[in-house]
Design a protein that fits this description.
The protein contains 3 helices and 5 strands; from the N terminus they run βαβαββαβ.
């Protein structure tokens, strides 16, 4: 069984989504994260987001967001919808 391409769509359970995304990197799968809502400012979410930033900087994962001016790659809703067709698994949080 080969490596999979996995999308994690971050909505309401943001801290859990960020933690799961980082955890998935232990496999040989490709992990892309799509942040669809403004990031919450609670302690747990902020800590998990820092881990995501580190992994993205290392090139381990790609992070897309629908908000311009962030540390992550901007993507429109339409482009995200087209891109999601490329994935083996989509995990909504």
């Amino acid at each position: 069984m080969g490596a999979k391409i996995i999308a994690v769509v971050v909505r309401d359970r943001q801290a859990e989504a960020f933690r799961m995304s980082v955890g998935l990197t232990v496999l040989d799968d490709t992990i892309d994260v799509f942040i669809t809502q403004p990031v919450k400012n609670d302690d747990e979410t902020v800590v998990q987001l820092e881990g995501m930033k580190e992994m993205a900087e290392l090139g381990v994962i790609k992070v897309f967001t629908m908000r311009q001016g962030t540390d992550f790659q901007y993507i429109t809703m339409e482009d995200m919808a087209r891109k999601l067709l490329e994935y083996d698994n989509i995990l909504p949080y």
